[in-house]
Structure formats: C-alpha cells, structure tokens
Write a structure and sequence with these properties.
The chain starts with 6 loop residues before the first strand and ends with a helix. Among the domains are: about 80 residues, Phosphorylase Kinase, domain 1, CATH 3.30.200.20; about 170 residues, Transferase(Phosphotransferase), domain 1; about 90 residues, Serine Threonine Protein Phosphatase 5, Tetratricopeptide repeat. Helix 10 packs antiparallel against helix 11 and helix 15 runs antiparallel to helix 16. Strand 2 and strand 3 form a beta hairpin. It is of the alpha+beta class. The chain contains 26 helices and nine strands. About 5% of the residues have low confidence. The strands form two sheets. A six-stranded antiparallel β-sheet has the order 1-2-3-4-6-5, covered by helices on one side. A three-stranded antiparallel β-sheet has the order 7-8-9.
Length: about 625
C-alpha cells in the first residue's frame, strides 16, 4: 500500500489514495518534473499479467478522445503494476447526487451525448474496447461541465459493479467465479456498456439504485413528478432492456434516438400532422373549385402574414430565443398561411430557429433546424452559410464524422473553401486539436465579411483560451466577438470568465481583483437591462453587487429572482447574506427562516449549504 510522499521510479510522488476500482487501487500523484497531477492505478496482479497490461497500454496510448483521460504509461514498482493517466479535476456523478444535485433533461442529454460519443469511439475502433464498469462513480464532470469517463478497461479484466452490470456481464462473471469451463466461450460487447449507461442514468433521474437482479425494476414512467419528457425516458428504458436484443445495438443508435427527441415532441408532431391535413384540404379545395377569399381579405391576410413573420425575426434579434422558436412553430403550423408561404420563407424561418437554438447552446435542435433550412433554400450564398452552420452544430454535438461529411458535401456543391474555415475550426476544436482550431478560426476571420461568422470565430477562440485557462486572452476574444454581434450568452460567458480570472488568483492586487468583479457585474448588468435573466444570473448578479457594496441593487435583483423562483432556498439565502452585509439582522433572520423553509433535506450544495447552516446557527 502506497502512502503520501512515496516516490515511484523517481518520477511520481504519491499525493493520496482517491479510490478503488474493480481491478485495483487508484492514487493521485504529482509528476515531479512536469509538476502536474496524474493518476496511478494499481492493477491487481491476480487479475491480469504484466504482458497483458503492456500490450493494452501501448494500444491505449494511441486512443485520444475529448471525454477520456489520456493514458501515458505503465510501470512496475515493488512487484506491483501501475498504469499512469490524466488526473481529471472535478466531481463524479455519485458525489453530485449525494450532495443533493438535481439534473435537468437538457443537462442529462448533453452528458449522455458525450458518453455515447466516447463509447462509439471505443466500441468501433480497430481494437474495440468494452469499458465494463460504467457507473456514476466513474463519470466525472469537469470544471467546464463536460464528462470524462474514467477507470475504463485498461487490462481487459472482468471488472463489475453489481448494481450497474448488464445481465450478461453478471452471468459471465458468475461463470468465471464458479470455475465454469464454458465461460471462456463468451465475451462481452458494446451492448453491455449501453445497459450500464442506461442503469446509471436511471439512478440519476430517480435516485433509486438499480440492480441487475431486480427483474421488475419500476419503469421511469411509473415515477411521479420526475420532470423528464416521455421520449427521453423511453430512450433510457431501451438502453437498459434486460433482453440484449431489445436494447440499442450501438452507441450510435442511442445518439440517433437523441436526435429524434424533438421530432417526437408534441409541437413537432402537430406540425407534421398539419402538413398532411393541410395538403389534403388544399387538394380538396382545388377539386371543388372553392374561391371564397375576397381580394380585400387577401390583402389583410397578406399584412398579417408579414407581421407575424417579422415578429419572429424581432424576437430573435432581441434575444428572446425560445419565444422566437415557439412563434416559428406556430407560424409553420398556421392554416392561414399555408397557401402563401414559399419554400424560401420556410427556409428563412428554420434558419432563424437554428440560430436561436445555437445561441442557447441547444446544438442538437440547432443542427435539425439548419438541416431543414438547407432543404428549403436554393440561393447559393444562403446555402453556403447554412452548410457551415449545420456542420458547426453537428460538431458541437460531437458528431465529428457527420460534420466532416457536410463540409465535403459543401465543397462538392461548389462552396468556396475559405467559407468553410469556421466549420473546420469547430471540427478541430471538438477533436481536441486546439492549435489547428485557432489557426482555422484566424483564417476565417481574415476572409469573412459576415458579422455572425466573424463573431463565432472570436467566440470559439475565447472558448479555447478559457478551456486552457488563459483567461486574459479569453476575455480579449469575447470582447472582440461582442463588437460584431451581441447575444445574452456572450455577455454571460464574458462575466463568467472575469469571475474565473479572479478565482485563478493570478494576482494579489486588490485593485485588479475589484476591477475584475466590476467587469463581471457590468456584463451581467447588460443582460439585466436588455434581455432576460436566467436562474444563475439572478444569483451571480446579486452576489457581485453585494461584493461591490451596491446592496440596494443586490436586494432588487434577488427579490425579482424570488418572484420567478419563489420556492428556491438559494434566492433567500443570498438575500439574507446581502442583509447581513448591511447589518440589517432582522431581515437577515427573516430570509434565513424562509431559506430553511424551502430547503430540502437532499439539497446540500457544498458552500451554499454550509453558508445556510452558518446563518441558521447564528440567527436562529
């Protein structure tokens, strides 16, 4: 057993033991020369041989994916075998659940996409790899809110966690343990990982721990008040089907099902149904020769048409993206306009909806809307933009191969190569090739005459620099992006980077610290003045103004937040902290009491929970 301070092979100094997997003990260590954290995983010698590990690690060194840790090395120390890989700074999903974290559908879909992207990569490689131990503990959410799948099958062993193991995995391990000679005739494939991933998401959604031997496990639909769509719950249920043949047969199939969630949404179904009905009605009217629309009514209807059409554009320009999307659906569904609307106008509406979804970081729906816009658009200049937008959205959904195919289609259609630089930059970025992504973004900026594309290039550069924690460059690029186009998310991200800049503690200069706080507040204030605040905006704007000493505005913002989220304890908590900073202890006590009233026993959000307990103890 290694202990803190032990030095391995003159290269790694043990920091602490951070867990144990099915196949061994896991340590956090410091690479002495590089001064960076790594993970050393001790492989149980009774499970696999040294030669097995050597072959596996040499293979895995070549495997690179945005949501996997890099595997660097293997080593032998005092008779034990270790593998060396990236240390991922973040929290695993099990700890997040235990701390009271609640997951909304959009968040879960994002993580499920990323995990299926990883599994598709592992399962379809020349040498396929089955993870074999997917569970909440082995999924880390990093500081950027993305997944990292850890503790994957380095040594080809039969690691298993009973609660999340597939039926066939449970049976195979049981056969091995009982010495059944037929065990060697069977092998697991990717469908076993799909089951385990489905079981993991079942736990995240219900907080009920599954079990492979719980044959009559309640369906997700039987739980009341989960808050997830029926379509999403059906996907999870199919992933964890007991019968392997009834499951999704590949991770790519799961991704395709996630793409179709919106198409199963009631509004989309209504649109499709209406198209059929409208066609039938229109044909019937042609057959019977009905001519009931008078010229005057036609003019009024024409004016209404463009009034509604322009309203969609206006809501988009004002940053009311969901409203614009809803209006777009209603417009496309309207029976009044079916005979008036042209393919070009349908394409333009889908294009607006695509940009709305993109700006809201709903890249799955954005890619669908841009795909539809392409089908209805004919002008070459519009199609070139749509090819780029469609490819970028696909890349953002981790559909790298599909994005590359769209770029190829665009080139074959005669689209200039320079116009596709943004798509190439995004593909490089999502593939982890930051240097090439920055290079392509710069090339795009030089050749682009489109403000939206130029802005997205600078936003991409800002995001890359933010990811590598070069916050000064990130801030510079976010600011430049705002010179071309302004969206609520751009202001929000700029505010977040200023806050991260301070958390990085790169300076002890109080003046610089306060300037960063002022800047973070300034950009959130723009959202407050021009757009609509989201939940975290209320909290952050209240916190920042309390730090700056503008207690009146802090109270105003948090009070408005309470009007939208009247049963959220954090709103009352931060209002109490503002009153405490003012020395108004009566209002502090009143809001602490309300925070305690709405605080749920399973909500223990780290610093927020600790602060609430402190206030309750002080002002009870």
């Amino acid at each position: 057993m290694l202990k803190s301070g032990d030095i391995i092979n003159n290269t790694y100094m043990i920091d602490s033991e951070i867990g144990s997997g099915a196949l061994g003990v896991i340590y956090r260590a410091v690479h002495i020369r590089l001064q960076k954290y790594v993970v050393l995983k001790k492989i149980k010698s009774d499970k696999v041989s040294y030669s097995q590990i050597r072959i596996e690690v040499d293979t895995l060194k070549q495997y690179k994916h945005a949501y996997l840790p890099n595997v660097y090395d293997y080593l032998e120390y005092e008779g034990d075998i270790y593998t060396v890989m990236d240390y991922i700074d973040g929290n695993d999903l099990k700890k997040m659940v235990e701390s009271g974290y609640k997951f909304d559908e959009q968040q879960l879909i994002k993580w499920l996409r990323q995990l299926c992207s990883v599994l598709n990569y592992l399962h379809t490689n020349k040498i396929p790899i089955v993870h074999s131990d997917i569970k909440p503990d082995n999924i880390i959410i990093d500081s950027d809110g993305n997944v990292c799948l850890i503790d994957f099958n380095v040594a080809g062993g039969l690691g298993m966690t009973r609660e999340y193991a597939s039926p066939e995995q449970f049976q195979l391990v049981s056969m091995y343990m009982s010495g059944d000679p037929n065990a060697s005739m069977y092998a697991l494939d990717g469908r076993s990982d799909i089951y385990s991933l489905g079981a993991t998401f079942y736990y995240l959604m219900t907080l009920v721990t599954p079990d492979v031997q719980w044959y009559d496990m309640p369906l997700l639909m039987s739980y009341k008040g989960l808050g997830y769509s029926e379509a999403f719950m059906e996907i999870i249920e199919k992933m964890k089907c007991y019968d392997i043949k009834s499951r999704f047969q590949s991770a790519q199939e799961v991704l395709s099902a996630l793409d179709n969630i919106k198409r199963r949404d009631s509004r989309y179904k209504r649109y499709i149904i209406f198209q059929v009905i409208a066609s039938v009605v229109f044909l019937a009217l042609v057959v019977v020769g009905v001519r009931m629309i008078l010229h005057g009514n036609s003019i009024i209807q024409h004016d209404e048409f463009y009034s509604e059409y322009n309203k969609i554009s206006r809501e988009y320009e004002e940053g009311n993206y969901q409203t614009a999307i809803d209006l777009g659906y209603d417009f496309l569904n309207s029976s009044k306009y079916q005979e008036m609307i042209t393919d070009k106008e349908i394409g333009q509406i889908f294009n607006i909806m695509g940009n709305c979804a993109y700006n809201d970081e709903d890249y799955s729906n954005a890619s669908y809307y841009f795909e539809q816009a392409l089908k209805y658009s004919n002008e070459s200049d519009i199609k070139s933009d749509l090819y780029v937008d469609y490819a970028v959205s696909l890349a953002r959904c981790d559909k790298i191969t599909e994005a590359i195919n769209i770029v190829s289609q665009a080139e074959n259609s005669g689209i200039e190569s320079s116009l596709l630089m943004l798509a190439r930059a995004e593909i490089s970025y999502k593939s982890g090739d930051y240097a090439n992504a920055l290079k392509n973004a710069d090339e795009c900026i030089k050749s682009s005459t489109d403000n939206i594309k130029t802005s997205r290039c600078f936003l991409l550069k800002a995001e890359i620099y933010e990811k590598i924690r070069n916050y000064s460059e990130s801030i510079k690029n976010y600011k430049t992006a705002l010179e071309y186009t302004q969206t609520p998310n751009s202001y929000r991200k700029l505010s977040e980077v200023y806050m991260k800049y301070n958390e990085q503690k790169i300076t002890n200069d109080n003046v610089q610290y306060n300037e960063n706080i002022k800047s973070a507040e300034q950009y959130l204030r723009v959202i407050y003045d021009k757009y609509n605040l989201e939940y975290e905006d209320y909290i952050n704007l209240g916190k920042l103004n309390r730090t700056l000493g503008d207690y009146d505005f802090s109270i105003k913002v948090l009070t408005e937040g309470i009007s939208k989220y009247p049963e959220d304890y954090r709103m009352y908590l931060y209002l109490a902290l503002t009153y405490e900073s003012m020395g108004d202890y009566q209002n502090t006590q009143d809001n602490v009491r309300k925070a305690m009233q709405f605080h749920k026993s399973d909500e223990k959000n780290d610093a927020d929970y600790d602060e609430l307990m402190r206030l309750n103890s002080t002002y009870h």
